[in-house]
Amino acid sequence: MFAAVLLVVATLAATARAAADTPPRLTILGDSVLTAVEWNDAPLATLQHGFDTYMDIGVCRRIVAPSCPYEGGRVPTLMDVINAMGVRLGPTVLVEVGYNDELGTFSQDVDAAVQAMLRAGVRHILWANFPATSDQWVAMDHVLEGVASHYGQMTIVDWNGASRGQASWFQNDGVHLLYPGALAMAALFNSAVTQVLAPPVPPRPLPAPLPTALVGRPYRAHLAAASGTAPYRWRSIAGPLPRGLRLLADGTISGVPRRAVRRPLVLQVTDARGLVATERELLVVLAGPHAAGSASHR
User: Fold this and answer.
1) pLDDT 10s per residue in the chain (298 long)?
2) Euclidean distance between CA atoms 74 and 133, whole angstroms
3) Buried-state track 106-139, b at ≥16 Cβ within 10 A, e below 16
4) Which of these, 99, 250, 229, lies nearest to 177 by C-alpha position?
5) Which domains does the chain have, with CATH numbers?
6) H, E, C per residue of 109-141
């Protein structure tokens, strides 16, 4: 019996180790721009590093409308691939598609693709934007930002920002990549996915003594935090502040204190992802004229 228990424990431990050692699944759906990465060893290795990667790259791919003709055929659209793979897409999908689409339908097509991926169980959608080398690409970048603002699961990968001023990365069309551009895109995409999948870092209050307040004098201080995801929200979780003072959600303590007191405070900060941290402070209000009446905290 004891041996059987040991066997079960060992099996569970081995399974846990195997799960911990399994790289995250990543599905990459792209068009001809990504062929420069797919067809070159070093960029491909850079893109796939640290992930269990499946790639579906199609030349002349569009999102919803039939893909443009290429070598006598048409590759499946982005929606075709999403619908065909379904749950096999996995939890994280990186999309580099849109260069062949029309601006007039781009917004509704991107939205349809995002919704289809979410229905398939995708939890993280990363969509690469376009280099702002034409009015259409600029407009399409704005469209991507607009769609992403409606979905917390969607992140824009800023290829436009990363490639700005890097003419040597591109072929003459300003879109398709030369070898340096392929390396740069691969590194950007890998870094973007790594950041999205990294465990969230909670906020960290920046400790420093609160400035001393003076009865009857205007007082203002500001709490600050690092790490986590801005914006931050602050509140007191150990009773009210001294009479006449209040704590705003942005971390500002302001008002006119009414009486001398030494008040221990327990302050809680919550970041945009809902992660919390606490900080203990001492707020001193003095009655004498020797105290400083207004100062900034941090």
Assistant:
1) 434 433 333 443 444 344 446 899 999 999 999 999 999 999 999 999 999 999 999 999 999 999 999 999 999 999 999 999 999 999 999 999 999 999 999 999 999 999 999 999 999 999 999 999 999 999 999 999 999 999 989 999 999 999 999 999 999 999 999 999 999 999 999 999 999 998 878 899 998 889 999 999 999 999 999 888 889 999 999 888 999 999 999 999 999 999 999 999 999 999 988 899 999 999 999 996 654 444 444 4
2) 27
3) bbebbbbbbebbeebebebbbbbbbbbbeeebee
4) 99
5) 2-197 (3.40.50.1110), 203-286 (2.60.40.10)
6) HHHHHHHHHHHCCCCEEEEECCCCCCHHHHHHH
What are the b/e assignments for 187-207, b being 16+ CB within 10 Å? ebbbebbeebbeeeebbebee
CB contact at 8 A, 10 and 3: no
Residues 6+ apart with CB under 8 A from 230: 271, 272
pTM here is 0.68
What single letter denotes the amino acid at residue 163?
Answer: S
Measuring CA to CA, which residue among 80, 77, 58 is closest to residue 67? 77
What single-letter amino acid sits at 9?
Answer: V
> HSE of 115 in the Cβ direction (CA atoms, 13 Å)?
9
Coil, strand or helix at 151: coil
